Amino acid sequence: MKKRKLKISLVEFLQNGNFGPFIPRQDCSPEDVIAILGKPSAIEVHAMGKEFAPYTTGDASLFPVIVCYGSIEFHFDSPSTLYTIHSDTPFDGVPIGGSLKLLDSALLRFGRTMSEFLHLAKERGITILNEPVKTPHWSAWEIKTNGGITLHFENDDPEEASNAKAPLRAFSWRPGPKNQSTVQPDIQPDPDGSAAT
Fold first, then answer.
1. For residues 68 and 44, is the Cβ–Cβ distance under 8 A?
2. CB-CB contact of 181 with 129 (8 Å)
3. Comparing C-alpha atoms, which of 15, 21, 16 is closest to residue 35?
4. Where are the beta strands (DSSP E) in the chain?
5. Roughly how many angstroms between the first and final C-alpha of the chain, as a whole number?
6. Helices in the chain by DSSP H: which ranges?
7. Which residue ranges make up each domain of the chain?
8. Fewer CB under 10 Å: which end of the chain, C or N?
9. Is it the case that residue 178 has pLDDT exceeding 60?
C-alpha cells in the first residue's frame, strides 16, 4: 500500500511560520526535522572538501548540511542549529515538497509579481508586516509576512524601478522575533499608470 504524503499548507506557513507539524526553531537538528516530516529527498553535505561525503548523524565536520524536501531546503550550520528554511529553485514553476504534499503552492509560483502576490495574500488572510524593502542587490525587494517568512522579488532588468512587477525569486524563514506591527505596502504603479494593487 502506498504511503500517504504529509500535507503542508504554504498559506499557514506564511501566516504563522509553522511548516505543517514542524514549528521552526533555531535550536534543532536535521534528525529533529526528519523525525517530524519524514524521509527527505536528499541530505547534502556542504563542508569544504567533504561535499560528496555521506551524511552521518551528529558529525560536526560535515556541516553545513542541507536537508531537502523537493525544492524546500532546511539549512543547518551545525548539528544543532537550523539557520534557515529556504526555497529558490523553480521546479515546474512552483515549490515542490518531495515526500511532502505542498498545498497552496501556486501562491508561491516563481515569477509571480509582487503586486499579484500581495493581492492573493490579502485574499488569504496573510498580513504583510513591512513596505517592500529594497535590498543592496541591484533591483530586488523583500517583504515579510506575519509568519516571519521573507519573500524576495527581483527584476531581471536592473533599470526596472517598479517593485510591482518584480517577480518572486525566493522565500525563507530565519530565526528571530516576529514583528507584530503591520503596514500597508506602498506598491509603485505599473509604468502604464494603472494601480499595482
1. yes
2. yes
3. 21
4. 6-9, 42-45, 65-69, 72-78, 81-87, 100-103, 133-134, 140-144, 149-154, 168-173
5. 47
6. 10-16, 30-37, 114-123
7. 6-87, 111-197
8. N
9. no
